Task: inverse folding
């Protein structure tokens, strides 16, 4: 008889945890859109087009693949929009997974976010900022790591002071980032069509490999779900914010890749190690390399700030649900921000930066460290949509995924393929990330797992 209880009538962990002891809906749609756009348009758009061009074979396939990547990401955003509108929470994915599969799996996800996914992403973005900042003003032997550590400390401090400091900074950083992309697009369209390129692509397209690169470049859009409880009118507006943000990103990606093709040709894009820098150098001369370094540094800083904002929300939700970790679940009311969670996240990111300082390539180490664990849990979030449709059919859903179950199935299959690829093509750092996830399972043995209806005050 116990199994027949409708879970929608039972108080769930961190469900709409708003009010005097938790987050309140204080953010506008522009702030959440700035987080989504800023975290997606990272440095990938300045790196991966060369890899995509080398595997695409033709210009048509090259551009269509970027369109397909945008459409697949929008499908994922539609799935997240249903979950976030039905179950808005500062915990985001953590809340969806806990609701669908229980607190133990939810704990493993929150542990992965704190120790691998979000802190690893924060470290790699900080390293990327450091790499390009060092090109402008070098600080010595460990210049990149010093810049990276300074970025983490500064962004954490801004977000710790007040949520509006963090989201306000995000808004302006995103405006600078998008403005820089428009500058690259304009340069590519005005410089004239490429003549003969010195490098020819293979001529054979590998759609699967191409999609891996493209979807990684679109990655990060799911982070908007973590602000669903802080968005004014979030249950009604989160779908429009997520999908609208990705439509804008898709248009920008199509335009910038068309600009690359026009200026350099497919072979020129495929043969370039720094496609945006080559385009800008052709358009404005040697000063273009400095401009691109500034743009990539701003893009990395923008994504790092968004990562800091959303990552701490999961840790906050974890602290609310496990008594031994209650200190992580304290909401800093004076700043409307999860203060302790931000500090814990920064401390782990700084440890990863310290480890990356002694690695051959800190950025690559961080990518390999995070990828398999990230795609595993994104797949589980997709599955949770099916589980919650069956388990809680009467829950209010202001937005429902169209063409259900086809679109959620496409999202799950895409996530599974990228999980496979991240395991098959990454190095030993990926095994370290998986090992840290396993350590969370061991830690779970020593924690008291509260009943599903119990939430820490």
Result:
């Amino acid at each position: 008889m116990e199994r027949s209880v409708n879970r929608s009538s039972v108080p769930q962990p961190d469900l709409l945890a708003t009010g005097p002891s938790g987050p309140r809906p204080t953010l506008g749609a522009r702030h959440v859109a700035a987080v989504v756009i800023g975290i997606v348009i990272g440095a990938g758009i300045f790196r991966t087009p060369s890899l995509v061009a080398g595997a695409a074979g033709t210009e048509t396939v090259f551009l269509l693949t970027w369109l397909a990547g945008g459409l697949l990401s929008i499908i994922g955003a539609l799935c997240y929009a249903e979950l976030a509108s039905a179950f808005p929470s500062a915990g985001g994915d953590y809340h969806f997974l806990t609701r669908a599969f229980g607190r133990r799996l939810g704990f493993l996800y929150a542990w992965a976010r704190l120790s691998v996914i979000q802190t690893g992403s924060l470290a790699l973005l900080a390293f990327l900022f450091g790499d390009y900042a060092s090109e402008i003003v070098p600080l010595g032997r460990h210049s990149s790591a010093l810049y990276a550590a300074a970025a983490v400390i500064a962004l954490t401090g801004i977000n710790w002071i007040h949520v509006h400091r963090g989201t306000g900074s995000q808004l302006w950083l995103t405006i600078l980032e998008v403005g820089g992309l428009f500058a690259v697009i304009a340069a590519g369209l005005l410089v004239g069509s490429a003549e003969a390129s010195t490098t020819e692509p293979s001529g054979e397209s590998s759609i699967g490999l191409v999609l891996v690169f493209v979807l990684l470049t679109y990655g990060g859009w799911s982070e908007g779900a973590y602000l669903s409880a802080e968005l004014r009118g979030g249950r009604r507006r989160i779908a429009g914010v997520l999908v609208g943000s990705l439509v804008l990103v898709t248009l920008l990606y199509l335009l910038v890749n068309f600009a690359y093709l026009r200026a350099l040709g497919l072979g020129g894009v495929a043969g370039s190690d720094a496609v945006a820098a080559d385009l800008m150098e052709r358009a404005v001369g040697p000063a273009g390399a400095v401009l691109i370094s500034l743009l990539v540094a701003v893009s990395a800083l923008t994504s790092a700030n968004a990562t800091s904002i959303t990552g701490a929300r999961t840790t906050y939700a974890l602290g609310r649900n496990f008594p031994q970790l209650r200190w992580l679940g304290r909401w800093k009311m004076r700043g409307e921000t999860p203060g302790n969670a931000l500090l814990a996240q920064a401390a782990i990111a700084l440890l990863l930066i310290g480890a990356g300082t002694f690695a051959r390539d800190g950025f690559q180490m961080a990518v390999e460290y995070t990828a398999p664990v990230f795609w595993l849990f994104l797949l589980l979030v997709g599955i949770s949509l099916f589980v919650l449709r069956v388990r809680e059919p009467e829950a209010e859903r202001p937005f429902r995924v169209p063409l259900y179950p086809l679109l959620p199935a496409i999202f799950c299959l895409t996530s599974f393929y990228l999980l496979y690829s991240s395991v098959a093509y990454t190095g030993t750092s990926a095994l370290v990330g998986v090992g840290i996830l396993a350590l969370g399972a061991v830690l779970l043995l020593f924690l008291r797992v509260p009943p599903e209806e119990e939430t820490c005050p």
About this structure: The chain has one domain: 26-444. The first helix runs from residue 29 to 40. Residues 1-20 have pLDDT under 50 and may be disordered.
